[in-house]
Amino acid sequence: xxxxxxxxxxxxxxxxxxxxxxxxxxxxxxxxxxxxxxxxxxxxxxxxxxxxxxxxxxxxxxxxxxxxxxxxxxxxxxxxxxxxxxxxxxxxxxxxxxxxxxxxxxxxxxxxxxxxxxxxxxxxxxxxxxxxxxxxxxxxxxxxxxxxxxxxxxxxxxxxxxxxxxxxxxxxxxxxxxxxxxxxxxxxxxxxxxxxxxxxxxxxxxxxxxxxxxxxxxxxxxxxxxxxxxxxxxxxxxxxxxxxxxxxxxxxxxxxxxxxxxxxxxxxxxxxx
Length: 273
Description:
By secondary structure, the chain is α+β, with helices and mostly antiparallel strands. Helix content is 26%, strand content 28%. The strands form 3 sheets. It has a 4-stranded mixed sheet. It is globular and about 55 Å long.
């Protein structure tokens, strides 16, 4: 079986309060985009539970820590799954705020459910995905979604960016979770994110904000510059995705992009459907 896990972008991200457990409650909109990894899953004659072959963008860490492997182990706790070979072609940049690893894990759960007829419904698959990461469950249904809590409480919304052009830029800069949350002051947003999303996209620039941008842009002007350049190129809305470091712009017409403008950064462009 071959699957194509896709990335997501965050439309707005408000840090609304700090929780007693030390985590933060937030509000954001997840929107799927057509930047995709490829994973091929085939039966294996190996005596091992799995063989993982990863190509493309390098994934740091041990194989045991890969979310695809964790997804497999999560299912094997309760289901008999024979040995498999997993071959990944990684195209979604890591450490980018795009949910690439989370998407791989969720798609893995969906694929194994189909391959081995585990008969899990979406609710059960979302439950298992959420055990692997706050945003993993989003990719089970994979539709525009308003997320709150730690990013794990979902409400599907009616929102279409069809026919808009997306330009996504991921610089070499890495933003740790610790850095992203440093100097964050939780507060209620000035405008309802759902109300903003329901208004014309031309109004988003002044109202839809990502609370991580203020401090990250201050510490990393190279990321702030990407957003500025996207607006100069004609974006109707531009923002950092999640806690970075990728920045995206939405355009009504296909922009003329000179990748040299962004140096060694990863650049992806596509029309949304």
